[in-house]
Each structure stands twice: as structure tokens, then as C-alpha cells.
Amino acid sequence: MVLVYAESPNGQLKKSAFEAVTYGKKVAASLGVPCAAVVLGTNATNAGELGRYGADRVLNIGEAGLNQLDNQVATAVLAAAAEQLKATVLILSHSSTGKSVAGRLAVRLNAGLVSGVNSLPEVSGQELRVKKSVFSGKAVVEYAITSPVKILSLMGNAVRAENAGAPVSVESLSVAVPAGRIRVTSVKTIEGRVPLPEAEVVVSAGRGMKDPSNWGIVEELAETIGATTACSRPVADSHWRPHHEHVGQTGIAIRPNLYIAIGISGAIQHLAGVNNSKVIVVINKDAEAPFFKAADYGVVGDLFEVVPRLTEAFRRFKAAN
Amino acid sequence: MKILVCISQTPDTTAKISFTADGTEFNSAGVQFIMNPYDEWYALVRACELKETLGGTVVALNVGPAANETTIRKALAIGADEAVRIDANPKSAAFTAKQIAEYARSENFDLIFFGKETIDYNGSEVGAMVAEYLGMPYISYASKFDLNGNVATVERDIEGGVEVVEVGLPLALSAAKGVAEQRIPNMRGIMMARTKPLKVLPPAAFDEPVKTIRFTLPPAKAGVKLVDPENMDELVRLLHEEAKVI
Ligand SMILES: Cc1cc2nc3c(=O)[nH]c(=O)nc-3n(C[C@H](O)[C@H](O)[C@H](O)COP(=O)(O)OP(=O)(O)OC[C@H]3O[C@@H](n4cnc5c(N)ncnc54)[C@H](O)[C@@H]3O)c2cc1C
Ligand SMILES: Nc1ncnc2c1ncn2[C@@H]1O[C@H](COP(=O)(O)O)[C@@H](O)[C@H]1O
Fold first, then answer.
1. Is residue B236 assigned to a domain?
2. CATH code (residue B128)
3. Interchain proximity B132–A75, CB inside 8 Å
């Protein structure tokens, strides 16, 4: 059995949960076993929807103590669920929650863990062989997980959630829930757009913008195409933009389908966080900017002219389609 | 306050990456190594700040070969009081975590700091593993950390926001941007680091559940397609018809 931990903060299944189940179903198919998804807490009312993405069974550990996540508690219940169900492969999202749970589970279950995978594993006898991108995208490493229980955490946006099946009815799973030691006192969310790690389209700008008051054209472009905004490090460091927008080696690593970089030179530390994007568009007035080497499409020109023009072109496209 | 800071060493991002001929190992010849930025700028600095206000000791720990001692001395120069090196060449986060846990088990640290991830493998695995071995609460991606007596208030980065949590000590946590400001070691720190104790310990046995098969270089990008800056309709067409991302 392949067991997928489907995250549902505040009872809402995350996009990464649909991706993880889609992925889990494919791993299960290659092993010839069923795929089950497990949802924690009392408030995930639409958990059965995971059936649409390939879960043969959806299990709910419906204890109020799991509505807020303490990774130590989550580890204990997921490990117990894995043992009850005799799961041989566990799949988590490589998210803020997944990262705090996956390592713990590996120790708890004596399991080999490969985190941040972005493609399907290959089954080789009792082993799973799986690849991940390392050294800021400059290399790929292939691992063999040899332990009886195996854990994979899936990079966000690495697979597209496939909604082809039908919902299933949710079974409840009874597992003892230990008391947690972490108390969540509040959650501050950034209003509006899709969070950067989950965003499929990102519009990002750098020092070429000259001044924070010029960001209107970036916002307008982002608004037009439903993108999340990001920025380079010096822009965040000089408080032109909020620090949660900072992408790169020391900020957030992202992998959207489309990354539009405006007035960013493309230093290696910036690329480290963005070069796993599927398609990169670079707008820069300097034809020699290093970012063009990492780009799929490039526009050599003054961003103050090009960006509004691009926004207009997207508007025309949207009106026509 | 007794604080452990786990520091790792990574190739500088600008380093050229290559592997041994059979592709099974990273080729470190000629590579410039640095202290992992999250460990240095955020974890270590916050640990030193806490010690400076509350008193106590900061121990910097690295699992690595003797060649890593330059990085370890840098941690001492920034402000750690003593250092421990577990003499091994780790092949996995699981191995490293086992070593750190074996050492920390009997040392009764109040706080164990990690960086949010290493910039070469981006695993974000070691901290959670150590916390599980030691049965400790673990907070990942701390972007703000305050202590009030024995209770820590931590802000942690989550997708699209921050979560504020409270938790008692002892505690393990991983540090992200925001938790502290980078410190450049000064001359006095560098001089003092030379005489601070650096203990070398042998590694514990560990059965690797994950083996490295090989490293490869990713296929080269096809090269950039330049679009006329006057013709943004063409760019939109390409993104729609060719790249199929909109
Ligand atoms: C250890 C370390 C970690 C780092 N981590 C990060 C990180 O996580 N993220 C990050 O982003 N950086 C990081 N950096 C910094 C990085 O090296 C670069 O300094 C930074 O990315 C540069 O930001 P920028 O491209 O916005 O600015 P610049 O390098 O100043 O580039 C501005 C660009 O705008 C272009 N431009 C100017 N005017 C116009 C115009 N009118 N129209 C069009 N184009 C124009 C210029 O040609 C230039 O290419 C790190 C550095 C170090 C040493
Ligand atoms: N070899 C090592 N020695 C000591 N600490 C390490 C080592 N490798 C990783 N760490 C710590 O674990 C954190 C997370 O590493 P990783 O799980 O590899 O992303 C790092 O930021 C360090 O704090």
C-alpha cells in the first residue's frame, strides 16, 4: 500500500495534497498496490474528493487534537497509520509541514527518505530509484532507497494534479493521539494571491525597477495574468518589497510554470531559487545580463516600456480567448 | 542556557559542479566551500545573541572531515564558545542526523539550532530527524525567535504567511531569514577562535537506507529565444502556443 499524507490546514485540502495523491497513485500503480490518502483532523469535510485524484481509499483520523499541527504528534499518528495499513511507501508534500514531518517519520519507521523529488521513481526489485535536482539545479542525483519502508516528499508544482476519478467515501481510522507540546497562537496570512511556493505563474522584479514607487507596472502585469509577485534579494533587503517576496538561494525556492523576471541581472544566487521554473522569460535592457543564459524567452529592452506593453498584449489575448 | 548549533559546509553557489568519473561522488577538487548561509547568518547568530543576553554556552557541531575545520573556526570566530567535529564524511542527511543525535543525547541542550536547509541538497531533513531521535519538539523555518523564561515564541514561515507558536524548552528549531542579521567575524573573534576548544569525536555506526547511485549533469537549455521588444503580442503567442504555459 502507498500511503499519502494529504495536508488540510483549516480543513481545506491544499493544492499540494492533490499533487501528492496524483503522484502517489502512479507510484502505487507501478508497484501494483492500492493508494490510500490520510487526512488529519475533524474539519476536512471534502476529503473524499481525493478519490478524484486517484486515492482508492481516503482515511480520516478525526481527532480534534490534530486540527492544529504539531509535527511530533502528526509523526506519531502517521507512523501508527502506516503500521496499521502495512504501508510500504509514504508520500508527503515537500511543504513547510511535510518538511517538519518527513524526517521525523523516517527515524520513527526506520525508513529511507528522499525529499524534494520531482519525478516518478523506478521500481527495481525491492528498491525504489528516484532522482532529485541538487546543487541549485546544476546537477541531478539518483538514489536507491533500500529499506523496507520508503518515504518520498514531493516538490510543489512538480506534477500536475490529475482529476479524473470519482470521489470515495471517507473511512475513519482510529489511532491514539498523544498530547502535543506546540501551541499555535495565531496564523498571519498574506492577503490575496496564491502563496509563492504554490504559484504557477510568478512575476518578479529586481533593482532595475529603480524605485519602489515604480512597482505599479509589475503589480498590473501580475494582476492581469493571475500571478504572484516576487523580487530579488537587494530589493527585499532595502525594504522596497516585503521579505516574503524574496526568491533565491537565501529566500524562497520556487518552481512555477512561468517565471517572468523584470530588471533582474540573474546572479547565480538568484537563479538557485528559480531555475527549476518550467519556462523563464527575462526582460532586461542589457543584452549581456547573465539571466538570458538561463531564459527560454528574452526581451532586450527598457522595462518601463516593455512591461506595460506586455500587460496590454496579455489583456488582448485574454479578451480574444 | 546551553545551545547547540549544527553547522554544515556547502560548495559556494558560484562553484563549478563536477563529479568523479563513475559519477558516484562529488568532486571537491578546486571547489570553494562556505558555511551553509542559513547556519551561519541565522542559526549561529541567533544562538550567540541568546547566549550574550542570557548567559550560557554555544557549541558549534559539524559532522565532517578535518578539512572542515576552517568553517568550524569561523563559527568560533562569530561567537560560538566551543566546537565539536564528528569525524566522518557524511553521505546522507540520515547519517548526519544519527551522529548529531548520538552526541546530543547526553548533553542536555536547551536549544538545538539548525539551518532551514543546506543549499546544496536542500533536504530540510536533518533537524526533524534529530528532534525525533531525541523526542524533542521541532519548529522548522523560524523567522523570529524570542524566549520568555522557559517558553519560546516562534514565528515560522508557512506557505503564504507565518504561523506563531509557543513551545517550552528543550526545543529543536531550524532558522530561516529574519531570525537574525548576518555578522561578519571581527579580528578579535578570529584571534580568540584559535584558542577555543575543538573536540573531535568518532562517528557511530549507521546502516544507510538510501544509497547514491549516480550524479549527472542536467541537459543544457536550448538557448534563449529573443522577442522584439516592440512586439509583445508575439511573446504572448509563444507562451500560449509553443511553451503552453498560459
Ligand atoms: C551568499 C549570497 C546569497 C545571495 N542570495 C540571493 C538570493 O537569495 N536572491 C537574490 O536575488 N540574490 C541573492 N544574492 C545577491 C545576488 O548575488 C545579486 O546581487 C542580486 O540577485 C542582484 O539583484 P538584481 O538582479 O535585482 O540587481 P542587479 O544585479 O543590480 O541587476 C539589475 C538589472 O536590471 C537591469 N536594468 C536596469 N534598468 C533597467 C531598465 N530600465 N529596463 C530593463 N532592465 C533594466 C540591469 O541591466 C541589471 O541586469 C546573494 C548573494 C550572496 C553573496
Ligand atoms: N554535516 C553536517 N554537520 C552538522 N550539521 C549539519 C550537517 N549537515 C546538515 N546539518 C544541519 O542540518 C541542517 C539541514 O540540513 P539538510 O537536512 O541537509 O537540508 C543544516 O542547515 C545544518 O544546520
1. no
2. 3.40.50.620
3. yes
Contact A188 B161 (CB under 8 A): yes
Q: For residues A5 and A90, is the Cβ–Cβ distance under 8 A?
A: yes
Give the separation between CA B179 and CA B160, rounded to whole angstroms.
18
Break chain A into its structural domains and give their ranges.
Answer: 2-172, 196-320
pLDDT at res. B121: 87
Calpha distance B91→A107 (Å, rounded): 16
pLDDT for A243 equals 87
Q: Identify the residues whose C-beta falls under 6 Å from ligand 2.
A: B 6-8, 36, 38-39, 61-64, 90, 93, 96, 114-115, 117-118, 121, 123-127
Q: What is the pTM of this model?
A: 0.93
Q: What is the pLDDT of residue B67?
A: 96
Count CA atoms closer than 13 A to B149's CA, side-chain side. 3
Q: Which of A19, A94, A96 to mutate to test the interface with B (most CBs of B within 10 A)?
A: A96
pLDDT given for residue A215 in this prediction? 98
Q: What is the DSSP letter of A251?
A: S
CB A58 within 8 A of CB A122: no
State the ipTM, two decimals. Answer: 0.93
The reply to whether A238 touches chain B by the CB within 8 Å rule is no
Is residue A225 within 8 A of residue A203, CB to CB? The reply is yes
Nearest bound ligand to the CA of residue A240: 1
User: Using one digit for the tens of pLDDT, what is the confidence trace for B22-68?
Assistant: 999 999 999 999 999 999 999 999 999 999 999 999 999 999 999 99
Among A96, A105, A145, beta carbon nearest to B157: A96
Of 3.30.420.10, 3.40.190.10, 3.40.50.620, 3.40.50.80, which CATH number belongs to A2-172? 3.40.50.620
Residue B36's pLDDT is what?
96
